[in-house]
Amino acid sequence: MSIGMRKQKIAFAAAFMAAAICAGQTVYAKDASSLEELKAGSEKVMESGGMTEKVRAGAADIIDREVVSVEVKSTEETVDVDEPEESAEDVQPQEDVPEVLNSESALQKEYPDLVMANVNNSVNVRSMADEESELIGKLYKGCAGSMLEQKEGFTKVRSGELEGWVKNDYLLFDDAAKDLAKEVGRLSATVETETLRIRKEADESSGVYGLLARGEDVEAIEELGDWVKVQCEGGKEGYISSQYVRVEFDLDEGETIEEIKAREAAEKEAKEKAEKEAAKHKPARTTETTKTNAGAVTAATDDVTLLAALIQSEAGSECYEGQLAVGAVVVNRARGRYGSIAGAVYAPGQFGPAATGKVAAVAAMGPNPVAIQAAKEALSGVTNVGGATHFRNIRSGYSGIVIGNHVFW
User: Is 268 helix (H, G, I), strand (E, B) or coil?
Assistant: First the structure.
């Protein structure tokens, strides 16, 4: 429709309403924004969003931006004025733009008042802002929390189930805390259905890379509407439905004294279970001790098998140097907070294959020779990533030592 014809229609509609208003009729406007002024001796009834508002008019004068649909009702008849047609140029499609959730926005959402532990190992959390008060838990290296209040050189922190006071000397705040959080944390998607397909594109009809099991987590790049872009093996990027996953920014959190005791008991149980499985499938093997050097750890055969199983699960397609690096990360963790290989491997929220049972399955079947060799070398104290305790896919954007498809820091 031409612009001239459209203007004529709008002018006709305006005149038509003006005449109706002068006659004392009620004008109904289905789009409240379609009328700016109505000055006549009648009532204007505006309907918008299911609500109706009556406005008393003063004069027979209508200023109309764009008539969408107008009904003039009297006791005798109802007249409809149809919506004017629009040319293709006039129509601008409106699409809802979904909120993008990435590492930056997820971190801000989960920790609006972020603090990070600034220690080499751990720092005590007290019941009061006093070094002599009761010890109620610990924050470890790289642990995150939310600041609740501050006084007398202490900050009250909530980190997981732990809530207490920490000396400011052992905390990072503001930009320094955010920078560290981005280095040690990651955006993850955890599966909350039995099985979930990883699609090649954000489309239900696209190809499939593989399946994820309930409880398995993958590194997420960003969440956009109905889909979450994730990192896949071999450096590929895939898509999973956001309807069936929980997306969050993973950061270590502190532990209460009760949680520390429970974790230590669980680690002991996991180690005993691993020993029984190893004895069942490989009875001929005996306990061995790795060679001693400054960085070596004492390891039984079950530790070698367990670490090799994790290496194969996490980096089985990587070169030997890449597999050794993954083993070194686990050994570095075992030296610190987790205290043992089993504790590091089965720590909650750390290694997806351990949580889903994949590591246990590989250990039961027997890891491949390359993974076993990498595990033994890592346990002997050899490291090609220094003291690194984290690794991610190289496309994650983290900085550090790059080996194969992973970056270590």
Answer: helix
Pairing of strands 43-48, 26-29: parallel
Kindly tell me if the per-residue pLDDT of 171 is higher than 80.
Answer: yes
Give me 372's structure tokens.
């076993």
Q: Which two tokens stand for residue 305?
A: 């098998």
Instruction: Give the Å distances, CA to CA, from 167 to 121, 132, 136, 171, 252.
Output: 15, 12, 14, 7, 19
pLDDT at 45 over 50: no
pLDDT tens-place string over residues 253-264:
888 999 888 877
CA–CA separation, 56 vs 34, rounded Å?
17
pLDDT at 82 over 80: no
pLDDT digits (tens, 9 = 90+) for 221-241: 888 889 999 988 767 889 999
Q: For the chain, what is the largest distance between any 2 Cα atoms, rounded to a whole number of angstroms? A: 105
The DSSP line for 186-226 is EEEEEE-SSEEEEESSSSTTS-EEEEEETT-EEEEEEEETT
Q: What is the pLDDT of residue 39?
A: 42
Give the pair of three-digit tokens for residue 230: 């994730």
Q: Count the alpha carbons within 13 Å of 335 in the hemisphere toward its beta carbon.
A: 18
Residue-level pLDDT at 99? 60
pLDDT digits (tens, 9 = 90+) for 172-192: 999 999 988 888 887 888 889
Q: Look at the block and give the residue holding tokens 């907070």.
A: 337
- By CB atoms closer than 10 A (0-12, 13-18, 19+), residue 124 is middle
Residues 311-316 have a mean pLDDT of: 88
Domains of the chain: 3-81 (no CATH), 100-184 (2.30.30.40), 186-250 (2.30.30.40), 257-408 (1.10.10.2520)
Residue (of 121, 112, 116) closest to 140 by Cα position: 121
* Distance (Å, whole) CA 290 – CA 389: 21
Query: The pTM is what?
Result: 0.52
For residue 132, the SS3 value is coil
